[in-house]
Automatic annotation (TrEMBL):
Domain of life: Bacteria
InterPro entries (UniProt xref): HTH_MarR-typ, MarR/SlyA-like, WH-like_DNA-bd_sf, WH_DNA-bd_sf
One Pfam family matching this protein: MarR
Family matches, as Gene3D superfamilies: Winged helix-like DNA-binding domain superfamily/Winged helix DNA-binding domain
Protein name: MarR family winged helix-turn-helix transcriptional regulator
Domain annotation HTH marR-type: ranges: 1-145
Length: 165
């Protein structure tokens, strides 16, 4: 019996990843919207909150989020108008600037996180035991290293402005 190429298990795996992503977005977007945030707004704020000194160079933030430099500029402009993020110039390199999480941005995240974490528990944490979660995170990191190699740019330590030159 010939197996159809449409029955390839690789297609099933990609279909499942797509379905899970769409389901997670559908479940979590209302939480972000209720807080006046889009998915990318939340991603930007949470990445800043988890970075050294709650700041990232704009170029690193663009790389981490997968946005173009103009795209991340628009997101930061919007978040700056809401007083969730501030820009900080680099004292040693006029070409470089940082996006910095403000106290208001931290408060907004603190408001969103309890519901967001409850959704994460319902859709992920509570479904897997500790070993499964560790294995799943390992697999996700391997996949991310291939498809988004810059996803942690600037996150390991405070980056010097001159490193951007």
């Amino acid at each position: 019996m010939n197996v159809s190429p449409f029955d390839d298990p690789r297609l099933t795996a990609m279909g499942l990843i797509t379905e899970v992503h769409a389901g997670l977005a559908a479940r979590m977007n209302p939480v972000f919207q209720a807080a006046g945030l889009s998915w990318i707004d939340f991603e930007t704020l949470i990445r800043l909150s988890r970075s050294p000194e709650h700041r990232l160079r704009m170029t690193d933030l663009a790389t981490q989020t997968g946005l173009s430099t103009s795209g991340v500029t628009r997101v930061v402009d919007r978040l700056e108008r809401e007083n969730f993020v501030a820009r900080m110039a680099c004292p040693t390199d006029r070409r470089a600037s940082y996006a910095v999480l403000t106290d208001e941005g931290r408060r907004r995240l603190a408001d969103v996180l309890p519901r967001h974490l409850a959704d994460i528990d319902a859709c992920y944490t509570n479904l897997l035991d500790e070993g499964e979660r560790a294995a799943f995170l390992s697999v996700l990191r391997k996949m991310r290293a291939v498809v988004r190699p810059g996803a942690t740019a600037g996150a390991s330590a405070a980056q010097e402005c001159t490193a951007q030159a």
